[in-house]
Amino acid sequence: MENPIVKAENYNGYFGDNHVVKDVNISIKKHEVIAVMGPSGCGKTTFLRGINRMHELIPGGTSKGKILLDGQNVFDMNVIYVRYKIGMVFQRPNPFPNLSIYENVVAGYMLNGIKMSKADKDVIVERSLTSAALWNEVKDSLHKKGTFLSGGQQQRLCIARAIAMQPELILFDEPTSALDPISTSSVENLFHELKSNYTLIIVTHNMQQAARVSDKTAFFYMGELVEFDDTKKMFTAPADQRTQNYITGRFS
Amino acid sequence: MYTKTLNFVENKRLELSDSQLKWEIFFKRLLIVMSAILVLVIIGVLVTLIQKSMPSIKSLGIGFLWGKVWDPVQNIYGAYPFLIGTLLTSFTALIISIPFSYAIAIYLGEYNQKGWLSDLLKNAIELIAAVPSIIYGFWGIFVLVPIVRSLEIKLGVAPFGVGICTSSLVLAVMIIPYSASLGITLIRMVPSPLKEGAYALGATRFEVIRNVVLPFTRTGLFAGVLLSLGRALGETMAVTMLIGNTSAIGNSFKEIFFGPSNTMASVIANEFNEADHDLYVSALIELGLVLFFVTVVVNLIGKRVISKASKN
User: What is the DSSP string of B114-140?
Assistant: First the structure.
């Protein structure tokens, strides 16, 4: 069997004394799209932020257990390097308001103090925007501020910004919950295209979205990983009663 | 495809991350050291004060604090009149200033947030803080003293003109900007969805201010008041010019409030140059130490109040 790109071993996440993620074990293969769903406060976002060690940025946020990225425990790795390798897209589009579209795409390199020629930057910008299905819409206004774009375009710009760093894995924290339906579908279509090059983990509130975009789905409830299986199976014949209750809308 | 440089960058990433992390650790240490230096300076000031006031502490004991007589010629030193002078001027000034600073903060923070009038007023208020205190001293002598004197004649107390009342008035003017400008900033930061929620329920502007804006900014506004109080406690020059510089303390509140007096800061400013023997100098330094502690205690109480209030 192929080695997993991400493997959590007894991962636990805390906010102070509050135990929000409990003993999660999960193994994610390359080029899979994983949806993580569950009711509010079930620990799915904390788990996601544990993977690239963003969780520990929150005061009181601590982690126990292991998360292996290509077989290496992220908690033993250089945290900067971990975040190089793992891209992240947030709930609200957050392009840097003081930077142009072009600068936003190469922001990862600028922030890390990596100097590049104009030609290299041009290559990265075009490639990343093309992968994010945004190139055709913005190629004539690359030097306008990123905040002039619509919500969906801004979110795709943020995806381009993450892709530009050539990550192995991209985390999405409810990436469409702040977007209108048209923007949402433009971002969802993008997931299908990104799949061939990247591994995606998408936290979502929206069950239909999980069903539409993912290969596999993880269901979190009260901090536990209840079930992790092929999305089709999960939505037709879930193994656990709690999953059944959730997808049939008995609690939310 | 990626060019050579990019592949190079790609291969260098781990190395680069390590150097980034090293710099991060260095930067954090630098910040800690810089902050620690400031703490050391404050501790140094405190140590010097204690050291220099040791002779006075040894020979006068704790009774220094409530001794009512200050007579350097007889070598009798009591801090009580100055403690009263400092606390009375500061709190009176605070009470006078609060309605003004709250009104200004509400007006410029909520009613008139933009435009030339708003800018003009805001700059004028900030200018008040920038005027050197000796100028307030002059203004107090030429304007406030005659006014207070005629008031005193009407009230039937000795018409000195100078004293705690006059000092408090000028102090009040001086400390308004501290709480007002913080208040303006805070009130402007109240999220508009919160205010709109109340407007949509039919609240008037006054009701929104009373029930939404003020509760939201309560602790911050109080912090501004504390900032003002800290300034009032230590203010020296203007007070020294207006307080009358008498070390004796009156018998009734009326006498104390309208009569000439001294604060801890003003007596140090007035007498330090004339202090001709060691115990005298040391007693003045001990006054400075007491002032230091009064300021610290007032601040600590204020912080406690703020943290209690923000928990509710």
Answer: SSHHHHHHHHHHHHHHHS-HHHHHHHI
